[in-house]
Fold these 2 entries.
Entry 1:
Amino acid sequence: MLRGEITTAIRRALMQELAAVGYGRLSIEAVARRAGVSKTAIYRRWNSKLDLVLEVVAAAAGRRLPALDTGTLRGDLSLLFQVLAHALRHPLASQIIPDLLAEAARNPTIDETLQRVLRARQQEVAGELIGRAVRRGELPADTDPDVAVDLIVGPLYWRIAIARTPVTDSYLEALVESVASGLGAQDSVPRQRSAPDPG
Amino acid sequence: MLRGEITTAIRRALMQELAAVGYGRLSIEAVARRAGVSKTAIYRRWNSKLDLVLEVVAAAAGRRLPALDTGTLRGDLSLLFQVLAHALRHPLASQIIPDLLAEAARNPTIDETLQRVLRARQQEVAGELIGRAVRRGELPADTDPDVAVDLIVGPLYWRIAIARTPVTDSYLEALVESVASGLGAQDSVPRQRSAPDPG
């Protein structure tokens, strides 16, 4: 294997091991075995199990989403919810992050890294969407980004990652309308639509 | 200790051990030691570690909240968010549930129990609140309880248990307005309030 291939194999094996056994029971031996590399190959790249886990998980959770600018707030929300619904079914969201959140209460380094990654992530996915809607005049200029981000990310996270309830297309459509209304979208006529949108 | 006191001591010790070491590393010996009882006292009451954990966690997570009927939707939301913000800082929400969610992907019995408890819980806290608001005429009769529940519980759960961002009184006030608007509350005038409410 080339150097880059070894690193990729280690990253993939680490994510699989984390999903399978969790942080507490994870061993570097098992990651090396799964990746088909030596333990030395891992320790040459990362100083410790903690270093390895934090760097790989932060990179995976921080991977940039495709551009989500559809031209309207509702279009952006709809696309974002579809992307999120897919991402939240990945073991990263359903197993690895919950496991590390539990671990974070016992380990300040894990806690700080997770907070930094999750905040950057939510800022990326929701903050940019809100900024565009404000510039388009769809949301009030004084929209509170703090509340808005939680309102956009929270309901779908709760449903898929915590309550583990299935998500249908009609659910996602209804959620777009509810979240847009909750954000104070100017053209929001959630219950009866009197005329088609001009744009 | 009396029989009831022994059971209470075991329950308390189990929750503390779960928060301290997580499900994977939890041992019945450590729970017995912390509770000051014999292992036999535990096995007389529960068949296995899994039985013990699921019964105690389900009982703790399923404990009924105080009555939340304040007479208005916004009042109910405000009180619920205060209660939730407190509850979500408990180790049950910040450590034990995330740990068991990660474990659930490896263990169908944990998965089913958690789903049952979390759904019953969200139905209790959000479902009853929505029903009252519909009966008062504050929410449309065709309010989709499926979306409404996620919209009520999700943002605060995301903020406190996942993103771990502090919650202030003014944040909670803004969240009440946003969620009420998102639910389609009839008297919702979130940005400019033209006249004081008659009621």
Note: Chain A has a mean pLDDT of 86.
Entry 2:
Amino acid sequence: MTQGLERLSLNQKTTNSWSVAEAVDGCVRAGIPAIGLWREPVQAVGVAAAAKLVRDAGLRVSSLCRGGFLTASDPDERTAAVADNRLAIDEAAELGAPCLVLVVGGLPAGSKDLAGARQRVADAVAELVPYAASRGVRLALEPLHPMYCADRAVLSTLTQALDLALTFPDVGVAVDTFHLWWDPNVAAEIARAGERILTYQVCDFLVPMPADNLLARGMMGDGVIDFAPMTAAVAATGYAGDVEVEIFNADVWAADPSRVVSTMCERYLALVAPYLA
Amino acid sequence: MTQGLERLSLNQKTTNSWSVAEAVDGCVRAGIPAIGLWREPVQAVGVAAAAKLVRDAGLRVSSLCRGGFLTASDPDERTAAVADNRLAIDEAAELGAPCLVLVVGGLPAGSKDLAGARQRVADAVAELVPYAASRGVRLALEPLHPMYCADRAVLSTLTQALDLALTFPDVGVAVDTFHLWWDPNVAAEIARAGERILTYQVCDFLVPMPADNLLARGMMGDGVIDFAPMTAAVAATGYAGDVEVEIFNADVWAADPSRVVSTMCERYLALVAPYLA
């Protein structure tokens, strides 16, 4: 492990073209001790094989991304979504992931009933909580930037995600700088979240945004976010977990993944790690 | 005036290619009793001439867009911005606009100090308040969608804009469906705003967003917003002002403005007006 990288985790999405084996190898070569896995590449190799790859390399799993998409109003779609989330919980357990990140879903096609969608998320999470507890996996509700409210996640603020998480004894939240940096209350809400913070994810917010707003995440230092205040606020809660770098970005994905990883380590050391102490 | 349009106002930006004279004429032809003016087209014809055009046509001015851009840290830029806002206040007074909408500005180029930018907005508004009061113009702080936090407005929620407005006796807020529809607290914050609501602006939020996110505003009915709850919440405060339709959208701007206006009237009558009662 490289000095200063003790809490860094490579979220697989940052090196989107790499298989689990390649990403594990990339972490080992870079001295990164943890990895945030995604279901699709894990399923491509098989959950047991992915778990073995990570374990044999001596890496921690920081999270599994992602469950969620729980807003369907159609009963069959809803049943399928809940079943798929149970499967994701099973996968997280087998991988040794401490939490399953939930991107809760947007408005169903054609619907404008935002309050209804939010209520269905609360209901579905309630349904999943006992199963997650039985498998030793914690659910991490992820508030997404409000620009994704309609198509990705009707949980739009940390306040809202935390209010829902706190209605259960053991549900937590995912804190991601990209989604939350603009929120005037974010430092106070991070403090309120305290031990409910299950994962801390960092990347930058690019201005101007790329044409596809799903790919507006950038390498730390390439956008407008000051990582000091949010990172210090997370550290002040006593959060001792990993810091995942999760970047959706066409240019990052087109670059050599090994170079992306080395840039990620440099930027993390310069812009994030100093505020974790 | 056409039945049902008694409170509709054409924000000039919706018919972006029209001069003040053309927009005034378009309102008269469509039976729209009010207009939301923009500084650039007003200055193009001259403030006195624009005021006369509106007055002679028997239209109300619902607002003047826009002042703001008050986040500069450079002293000279800041002085220039405050002076320009004084000029905008003069223009609003001469036009008979009840309020000047302030889009407060984003991060200065190269800066990541969001808290500092927000403080400079508060300081600049404090500086402008006495002048606005002396001219009989109210300042309307407009919270913009969080996706514009870095480049347009560091006021990102109604809560935040209202908290700032309430530190002064006579400053208000602009409530715009596009910017606020995602906010889980928006109905409660509209209620809290009460008489501080100086303008209510409507347009839709398009999904997927166009490549240029500044042009993501759509005609009511073309996006994901349910106008009922926000409109009813605004009406419940006793708001008796005009309802402006303000659309930034390349397709709308490329269309025949007269057709845009007639579509706007139809959509307003179907999707907004019923909830004003």
Note: Strands of chain A lie at 8-11, 34-38, 60-68, 99-103, 138-141, 172-176, 197-202, 204-205, 217-218, 243-245.
